[in-house]
């Protein structure tokens, strides 16, 4: 038994922020952003009216309807995000509550840009084992809540955007359809290269670099402190060049791994949906694999990098445009913070 995508949906906030809109807050330019990343604009969630979970609910509602079922038919939730509504509990239970689902299992996945492919892989195993019949897999992010919109944080804040995507996985006995395989990897050696250190419990344990300032108190006052905020240690950090160099190696590697495992070649791919990290990374991967333009889908130009949401949003757009038909080979691939990277190969 394999699992197939029975329904898919996405949601992006209405609020469009162009590169020129960012100039009000930081020293940057439309030219710099487009040249380095390909991004023209991104969406930002309503500041108080939308959360990572509510956007996930919007995407999930569409996916569930398209699968021809109701929220009460869902028997497991896997929710991938790095920007949860609460530090804990995770978004999975908030979605379960908001969608009035039964008292089903809800699992949160914290694998950043690879989160959706990891989540899909977990769901795939539950379907293959026969444990569940309708699994909702969600990737959603509200990055706009906590980025540094001053010039200090511009290398990150121009890249990331908000949005959500979701799929419903169901079992299929059709040998010509479904998820063929998933491939998951990690290398924690570079964990601090793309990370949000605070709030956290690390207490400067892992590196020589002092990632957090806090008082030498007898108890507490370490998880989040006034000192951290005064020193702007509450924002994400990224060494962009180091990420870029690793990404252009690991993306092709994990795609080839998936193809080899299924005795297929790049020429067999109808469409590759790379996680939308940076248009230059996607173009590099396309070139390395010798793929034509029509074999690779990119939408980072209009949404920026939406982390766990980027793959399901792009997959949904490709499907809505009628570019994938039953039996077509679709490859999903992701790389991100951790580092973690992953791929999935499926017959639509
Ligand atoms: C982030 C990224 C676009 C930066 O491009 P880059 O060519 O590596 O640029 P650098 O970081 O070397 O910075 C070059 C200069 O541009 C400046 N700069 C950084 N962000 C800027 C911005 N938004 N606008 C204008 N200038 C900016 C830097 O301060 C630096 O200035 P300096 O030379 O005076 O010190 C690029 O490294 C990248 O895309 N990396 C991958 C990131 C990624 O995919 N992350 C998500 C992983 S899932």
Structural description of this entry:
The chain is of the alpha/beta class and 348 residues long. It has eleven helices and 13 strands. A five-stranded mixed β-sheet has the order 1-7-6-4-5, with helices on both faces. Strands 8-13-12-11 form a four-stranded mixed β-sheet, with helices on both faces. Strands 2-3 form a two-stranded antiparallel sheet. Strand 4, helix 4 (91-98) and strand 5 form a beta-alpha-beta unit. It binds coenzyme A. Coenzyme A (COA) is lined by residues 28, 32-33, 36-37, 113, 154-155, 158, 238, 240-241, 243-244, 277-278, 281, 305, 336.
Low-confidence spans: pLDDT under 50, at least 5 residues?
Answer: none
Helical amount among residues, as a percent range? 25-40%
The secondary-structure element order is: EEHHEHEHEHEHEEEHEHEHHHEE
Shape: globular
Please state roughly what percent of the residues sit in beta strands, choosing from under 5%, 5-15%, 15-25%, 25-35%, 35-45% or over 45%: 15-25%
- Tally the beta strands: 13
Quaternary:
single chain
Radius of gyration, whole Å: 20 Å
Average pLDDT: 97
Report the bound ligands by name, code or SMILES. Answer: coenzyme A
Number of helices: 11
Which class of secondary structure composition applies to the elements? alpha/beta
Strands in their spatial order, largest beta sheet? 1-7-6-4-5
């Amino acid at each position: 038994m394999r699992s197939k995508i029975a329904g898919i949906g996405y949601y992006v906030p209405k609020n469009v922020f162009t590169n020129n809109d960012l100039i009000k807050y930081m020293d940057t330019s439309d030219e710099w952003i487009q040249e380095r990343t390909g991004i023209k604009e991104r969406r930002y969630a309503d500041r108080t009216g939308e959360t990572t979970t509510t956007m996930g609910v919007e995407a999930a509602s569409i996916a569930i309807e398209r699968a021809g079922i109701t929220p009460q038919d869902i028997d497991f939730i896997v929710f991938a995000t790095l920007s949860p509504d609460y530090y804990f509990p995770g978004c999975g239970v908030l979605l379960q509550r908001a969608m009035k689902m039964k008292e089903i299992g809800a699992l949160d996945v914290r694998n950043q840009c690879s989160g959706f492919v990891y989540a899909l892989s977990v769901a795939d195993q539950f379907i293959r084992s026969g444990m569940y019949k309708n699994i909702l897999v969600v990737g959603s992010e509200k990055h706009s809540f906590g980025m540094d919109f001053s010039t200090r944080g511009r290398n990150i804040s121009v890249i990331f955007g908000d949005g959500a995507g979701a799929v419903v996985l169901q079992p299929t006995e059709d040998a010509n359809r479904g998820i063929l395989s998933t491939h998951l990897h990690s290398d924690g050696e570079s964990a601090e290269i793309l990370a949000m250190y605070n709030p956290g419990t690390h207490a400067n344990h892992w590196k020589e670099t002092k990632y957090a300032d806090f008082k030498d108190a007898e108890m507490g006052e370490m998880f989040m402190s006034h000192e951290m905020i005064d020193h702007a240690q509450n924002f994400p950090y990224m060494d962009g060049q180091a990420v870029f160099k690793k990404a252009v190696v690991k993306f092709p590697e994990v795609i080839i791994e998936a193809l080899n495992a299924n005795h297929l070649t790049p020429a067999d791919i109808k469409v590759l949906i790379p996680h939308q990290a940076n248009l230059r990374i996607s173009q590099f991967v396309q070139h390395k694999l010798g793929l034509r333009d029509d074999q690779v889908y990119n939408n980072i130009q209009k949404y920026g990098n939406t982390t766990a949401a980027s793959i399901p949003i792009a997959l949904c757009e490709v499907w809505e445009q009628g570019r994938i038909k039953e039996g077509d080979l679709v490859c999903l691939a992701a790389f991100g913070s951790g580092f973690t990277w992953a791929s999935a190969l499926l017959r639509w």
